[in-house]
């Protein structure tokens, strides 16, 4: 009988093979046992430039290139390690103080172990990505050592050993090996291999083994700028070390459910999962939209919010029906209620302070009084957080929490940081340099929010500069909205054409650049843009055809000619997603050379373009449409105003002007058709800040004027976008990149419809976009032309936001663009400033057979990821733009006082919100600002009326016109110079 | 869990610690079942298969009609033996216990692929009016399944003493970055495991002996043409390594048999007993 049994030791490879065995559970709850092979090797280099042995056997890739060695032969020394040292941080050290490792003053020559890298990836993906970024930067000299694959450093998990202990042991083993390995090099000065850890047990064991080991704090305090760096160590860890936390403290917040309990609960429909949003007017009220309920669930009070921060993905549990409430009508701001809290002692009189309780209590009374049953909204409490959406926050230190008097020495102080974003709670910060940080814009990270801490704790990342300086404020708002504002890296700039600004359209038509391009240089093309526009995306032409029809062409900058798919520039653009326009600054998506020169359809020069040409009849109905790459020469670049003047000037009878008149005539017909189909004309207050040209200080604010020529350009852009959308969808039914605007749920309009009905007797019909458009047209007030705009602004806020998507992810009826009343839509016309347009260009080029389809524009998974990113970027860019305007409006009003007309948009029981059309800004007027003490008031939710009593008796109604005094004011809470309003007369 | 290929560039190490051109550990045995005409057992990493060859034998009544994989040569009864390949994938062979029936399209395709490769490279004309049945059992799967099946079949056929032109050896080759990444400078990879197969483009190639003659080439994933050549070169090179390994196993077994006296030593034998 033959035996299949393998003889022991017959296989010389066997000792080098180990198995990784672990158990995992799948999303569907199944438990799987996974066995993986691990091949242990002896050719993984130490990557130290001291070591000759490793260099000779360094691994090579398929083209026989070896990776260069990373670690310096003469690393820096410290007091304890004068011979120089290599650092080996463990996972906790990285989790607690990633910011330290990114410092440019120290933390060079760091060995990242594979064990640590993998553990970090499981614990925090953002930190992992930052670490990988560090390992790629050449000057920081971070080396990833794959200790789990090296024979000498691989260890097996022992019986009864926890995974953490095993990993710690693996780290120590690697440190030990490194020490012994470097000793073999016989260099004059052998650097010490220092383990950085905050785990006391691990440190003790390392010292027992005779290894160099140090805690982060000990290590940092020996560095030159140790004091500054100490602040960057995360709070939670220094607590554990200092042990100042009293063990007897009772937890303030309820405990989170276990993840398995949450998972089963969500599956069974008992719990609900969604994104937590905080009300902008009331920091104690949050809402969460879940599929199971048409209206969002309310989450009221600190205890129910249970340590969630705006944007977190949380799991909530419904509260019993007798605790259901209607949304708050009261403004509750954190600073006014928790003003006197002491950051240092965290005295815990009552967890929910009396004031907070009182504020909520009044709410309950009010709802019970009003008790309009149908107004009640289900309430819920947070029972767990699935995913934290913490990012870095910008804010400033609340001066009242900083200890007074000159700070002696380097005392560790606790202070509160007040974030710029009102939805984010105060963050407790411990720092040794309060006096330097006061009055500065700061960037901080939230580390943790424990059950026994009233506020989240964080640590300082860096200071951006003095409050209210232009540089600091601009950087702050770019950071707040996550705009990538760093200069383009060299790899991106390398992708630009070598000729630079001297690039010209090739003269010879034999040049590959001319392949399949139409020569449209004879056409009378012009561009119309806002004044001073440098990145000209689009140009137009029109002419009469012999058969009486019109030929209309829209020419778009051919960016895809310069930005090839999947190169560094393309990747950078896909990350940036969009150009961000601030009042005084533009953060480009593409390098300047392309955006403002080579791609920009400047007048009098030849440029590559992507052209859509229609033949339309006199009713602007399309007879036929075609798409082509082309070469054009724009005859003139007009501003909207110039174009308007030229069209209106009867004496101008040249062909170019005639063409523009044709365009205007056709655009009006297009607009009419669109409006008849139910397109909405919505409003958002648009204003422009005028700057003094020399100092670029803002001097005045004006609302933007709208001319016929604005809508001329807009109509043809929409027209082109729709045509292109249909074409790319036809070519790529699964992967076309499109833009949709979902129909808003009817409930979104409930409140506005109710308000209009009660206050003005107007009916808002929302069954279709057409009905909505018609009923919005009827919302007029003869006395007040602005009333209609006001209603439109408010209606706009009830809408969904439009989004990019990949056609395979939705069914055709879902493609609809509600606001434009178009069945299908995409963005095609601004490839210089939007990445989606660039993708549409590539798809269209493939659809007309101009070039082969690149895999990146037809891989659905990738496109979905891109869509997700550009949707976020697009939104952030808008927000950043608005924030910039708000800042400059504040600056323009500095030292001025103006009395302006305003309209009441929203009423609370203790204040109201007004919109000032002249500045396009909203302001909150609180009753306590009217008089001191706060006048008694009565709020009637049924009729949206707020009446105050006493000597300052006023009656404020919704939609009412009031006069307010506007002046600038530095908001103590956000540290932002903003606009403050006072009621002059109602 | 998606495979993270981003760490490859950090140290040129694959997810299991191999280099780009490393085969996994190969363990193979020949003549594992005394009762069978030819048999073998083969492990490539955690992919474990066994093979039993029956025949050349008189065709059984039912076999011709069923014709699984036999279709290609069924008409050639007069000219040579027909080849029947059966693959059985055990329910316990993958992470999730799953029964795969006889009519599974994937299994059928593998059967046909192996059958065609054999039909072209065995000297079937020596055995007219007969059938060679190859039964393959998959005990454990961890990538490169088709390659392992082909290698095991080769060993079992040698054990059965069926004349063939040369070893048919197979292995898989892939590329270190996914199709969508579009990275033309990606390193090719040899001998993929399941994790890698799920994420990366790969192909299975089988060659004939030491030559560059390709007997089987299967590529089901989408990959840029520019990367194909590199993958194929690495794959063919892997097949050569595989041939050396299999050859070593055959020789080892042969010399052992002579030592044990199971076979008469003759002057014709090329096997040197010293190794």
Automatic annotation (TrEMBL), chain A:
SMART domains: PINc (SM00670), RNB (SM00955). Its cofactor is Mg(2+). Residues 517-850 form the RNB domain. It comes from the Eukaryota. InterPro entries: Dis3_CSD2, NA-bd_OB-fold, PIN-like_dom_sf, PIN_dom, RNase_II/R, RNase_II/R_CS, RNR_Ribonuclease, Rrp44_CSD1. The keyword Transcription does not apply. It is found in: Cytoplasm; Nucleus, Nucleolus. GO terms for cellular component: cytoplasmic exosome (RNase complex); nuclear exosome (RNase complex); nucleolus. One of its GO terms (biological process) is rRNA processing. It holds the Pfam family PIN_4. Keywords: Cytoplasm, Endonuclease, Exonuclease, Exosome, Hydrolase, Nuclease, Nucleus, RNA-binding, rRNA processing. Belongs to the RNR ribonuclease family. PANTHER family: EXOSOME COMPLEX EXONUCLEASE RRP44 (PTHR23355:SF35), RIBONUCLEASE (PTHR23355). This is Chromosome disjunction protein 3. It comes from Trichoderma lentiforme.
TrEMBL record, chain B:
Transmembrane segments: none annotated. GO terms for cellular component: cytoplasmic exosome (RNase complex); nuclear exosome (RNase complex); nucleolus. One of its GO terms (biological process) is U4 snRNA 3'-end processing. Residues 59-78 are annotated as: Disordered. GO terms for molecular function: RNA binding. Residues 23-163 form the Exoribonuclease phosphorolytic domain. InterPro entries: ExoRNase_PH_dom1, ExoRNase_PH_dom2_sf, PNPase/RNase_PH_dom_sf, Ribosomal_Su5_D2-typ_SF, RNase_PH. Residues 67-78 have a biased composition (Gly residues). Signal peptide: none annotated. Belongs to the RNase PH family. This is Exoribonuclease phosphorolytic domain-containing protein. The lineage of its organism: Eukaryota, Fungi, Dikarya, Ascomycota, Pezizomycotina.
């Amino acid at each position: 009988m033959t035996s299949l049994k393998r003889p022991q030791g017959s296989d010389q490879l066997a000792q080098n093979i180990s198995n990784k065995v672990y158990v995992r559970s799948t999303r569907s709850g199944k438990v799987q046992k996974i066995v993986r092979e691990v091949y242990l090797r002896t050719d993984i280099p130490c990557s130290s430039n001291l070591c000759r042995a490793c260099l000779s056997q360094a691994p090579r890739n398929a083209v026989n290139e070896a990776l260069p060695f990373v670690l310096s032969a003469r690393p820096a020394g410290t007091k304890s390690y004068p011979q120089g040292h290599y650092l080996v941080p463990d996972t906790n050290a990285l989790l607690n103080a990633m910011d330290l490792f990114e410092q440019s003053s120290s933390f060079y020559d760091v060995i990242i172990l594979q064990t640590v890298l993998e553990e970090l990836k499981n614990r925090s993906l953002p930190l992992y990505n930052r670490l990988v970024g560090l390992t790629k930067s050449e000057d920081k000299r971070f080396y990833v050592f794959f200790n789990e694959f090296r024979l000498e450093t691989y260890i097996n998990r022992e019986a009864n050993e926890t995974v953490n202990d095993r990993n710690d042991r693996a780290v120590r083993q690697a440190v030990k090996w490194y020490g012994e390995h470097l000793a073999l090099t016989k260099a004059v000065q052998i650097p010490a291999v220092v383990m950085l850890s905050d785990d006391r047990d691990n440190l003790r064991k390392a010292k027992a083994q005779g290894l160099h080991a140090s805690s982060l704090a000990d290590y940092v305090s020996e560095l030159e700028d140790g004091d500054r760096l100490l602040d960057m160590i995360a709070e939670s860890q220094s607590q554990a070390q200092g042990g100042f936390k009293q063990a007897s403290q009772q937890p303030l917040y309820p405990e989170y459910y276990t993840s398995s309990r949450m998972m089963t609960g969500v599956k069974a429909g008992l719990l609900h999962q969604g994104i937590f949003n905080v009300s902008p007017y009331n920091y104690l009220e949050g809402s969460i939209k879940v599929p199971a309920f048409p209206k969002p669930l309310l989450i009221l009070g600190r205890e129910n919010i249970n340590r969630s921060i705006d944007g977190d993905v949380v799991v909530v549990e419904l509260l019993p029906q007798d605790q259901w409430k209607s949304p708050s009508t009261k403004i509750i701001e954190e600073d006014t209620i928790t003003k006197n809290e002491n950051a240092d002692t965290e005295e815990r009189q009552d967890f929910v302070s009396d004031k907070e309780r009182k504020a909520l209590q009044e709410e309950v009374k009010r709802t019970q009084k009003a008790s309009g049953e149908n107004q009640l909204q289900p309430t819920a409490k947070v029972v767990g957080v699935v995913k934290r959406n913490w990012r870095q926050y910008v804010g400033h230190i609340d001066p009242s929490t900083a200890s007074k008097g000159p700070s002696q020495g380097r005392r560790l102080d606790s202070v509160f940081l007040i974030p710029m974003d009102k939805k984010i709670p105060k963050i407790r910060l411990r720092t040794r340099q309060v006096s330097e940080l006061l009055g500065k814009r700061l960037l901080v990270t939230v580390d943790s929010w424990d059950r026994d801490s009233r506020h989240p704790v964080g640590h300082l990342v860096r200071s951006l500069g003095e409050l209210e300086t232009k540089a600091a404020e601009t950087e702050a708002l770019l950071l707040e909205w996550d705009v990538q504002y760093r200069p383009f890296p060299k790899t991106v700039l390398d992708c630009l054409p070598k000729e630079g600004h001297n690039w010209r359209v090739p003269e010879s038509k034999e040049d590959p650049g001319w392949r399949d391009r139409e020569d449209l240089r004879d056409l009378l093309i012009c561009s119309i843009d806002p004044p001073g526009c440098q990145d000209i995306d689009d140009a137009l032409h029109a002419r009469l055809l012999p058969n009486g029809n019109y030929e209309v062409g829209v020419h778009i900058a051919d960016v895809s000619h310069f930005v090839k798919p999947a190169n560094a520039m393309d990747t950078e653009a896909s990350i940036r997603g969009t150009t961000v326009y601030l009042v005084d600054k533009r953060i480009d998506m593409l390098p300047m050379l392309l955006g403002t020169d080579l791609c920009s359809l400047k007048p009098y020069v030849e440029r590559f373009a992507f052209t859509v040409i229609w033949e339309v009849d006199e009713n602007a109905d399309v007879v036929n449409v075609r798409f082509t790459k082309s070469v054009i020469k724009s005859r003139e670049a007009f501003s909207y105003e110039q174009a308007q003047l030229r069209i209106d000037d009867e004496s101008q009878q040249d062909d170019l002007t005639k063409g523009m008149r044709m365009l205007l005539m056709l655009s009006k017909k297009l607009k009419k058709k669109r409006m008849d189909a139910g397109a909405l004309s919505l409003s958002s207050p648009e204003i422009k800040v005028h700057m003094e040209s020399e100092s670029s200080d803002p001097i005045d604010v004006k609302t933007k004027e709208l001319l016929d020529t604005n809508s001329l350009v807009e109509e043809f852009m929409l027209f082109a976008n729709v045509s292109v959308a249909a074409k790319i969808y036809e070519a790529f039914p699964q992967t076309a990149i499109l833009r949709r605007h979902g129909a808003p749920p009817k409930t979104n309009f409930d409140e506005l419809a109710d308000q209009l009905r009660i206050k003005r007797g107007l009916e808002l019909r929302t069954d279709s976009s057409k009905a909505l458009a018609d009923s919005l047209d009827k919302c007029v007030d003869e006395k007040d032309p602005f009333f209609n705009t006001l209603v439109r602004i408010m209606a706009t806020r009830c809408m969904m936001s439009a989004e990019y998507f990949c056609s395979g992810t939705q069914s055709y009826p879902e493609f609809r663009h509600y606001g434009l009343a178009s069945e299908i839509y995409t963005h095609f016309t601004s490839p210089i400033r939007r990445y989606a347009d660039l993708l549409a260009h590539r798809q269209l080029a493939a659809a007309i057979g101009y070039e082969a389809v690149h895999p990146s524009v037809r891989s659905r998974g990738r496109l979905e990821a891109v869509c997700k990113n550009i949707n976020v970027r697009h939104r952030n860019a808008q927000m950043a733009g608005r924030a910039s305007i708000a800042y400059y409006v504040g600056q323009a009003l500095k030292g001025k006082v103006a009395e302006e007309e305003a309209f009441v948009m929203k009423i609370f029981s203790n204040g109201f919100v007004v919109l000032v059309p002249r500045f396009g800004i909203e302001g909150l007027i609180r009753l306590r600002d009217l008089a001191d003490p706060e006048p008694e008031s009565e709020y009637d939710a049924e009729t949206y009326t707020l009446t105050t009593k006493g000597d300052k008796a006023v009656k404020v109604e919704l939609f009412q016109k009031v006069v307010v005094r506007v002046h600038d004011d530095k908001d103590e809470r956000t540290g932002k110079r903003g606009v403050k309003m006072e009621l002059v007369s109602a | 869990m998606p495979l993270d290929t981003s760490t490859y560039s950090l140290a040129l190490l694959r997810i299991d610690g191999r280099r780009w051109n490393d085969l996994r550990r190969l363990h193979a045995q020949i003549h594992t079942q005394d009762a069978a005409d030819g048999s073998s057992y083969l492990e490539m990493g955690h992919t474990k298969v066994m093979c039993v060859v029956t025949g050349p034998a008189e065709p059984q009544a039912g076999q011709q009609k069923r014709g699984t994989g036999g279709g290609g040569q069924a008409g050639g009864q007069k000219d040579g033996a027909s080849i029947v390949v059966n693959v059985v994938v055990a329910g316990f062979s993958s992470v999730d216990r799953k029964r795969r029936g006889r009519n599974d399209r994937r299994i059928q395709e593998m059967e046909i692929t192996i059958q065609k490769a054999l039909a072209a490279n065995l000297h079937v004309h020596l055995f007219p009016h007969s059938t060679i049945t190859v039964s393959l059992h998959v005990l454990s799967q961890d990538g490169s399944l088709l390659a392992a099946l082909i290698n095991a079949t080769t060993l079992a056929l040698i054990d059965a003493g069926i004349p063939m032109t040369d070893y048919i050896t197979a292995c898989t080759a892939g590329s270190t970055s996914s199709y969508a990444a579009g990275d033309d400078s990606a390193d090719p990879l040899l001998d993929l495991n399941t994790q890698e197969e799920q994420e990366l483009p790969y192909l299975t190639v089988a060659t004939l002996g030491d030559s560059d003659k390709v007997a089987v080439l299967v590529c089901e994933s989408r990959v840029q043409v520019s990367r194909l050549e590199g993958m194929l070169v690495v794959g063919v090179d892997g097949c050569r390594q595989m041939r050396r390994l299999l050859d070593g196993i055959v020789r080892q077994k042969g010399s052992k048999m002579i030592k044990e006296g199971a076979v008469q030593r003759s002057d014709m034998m090329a096997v040197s007993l010293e190794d």
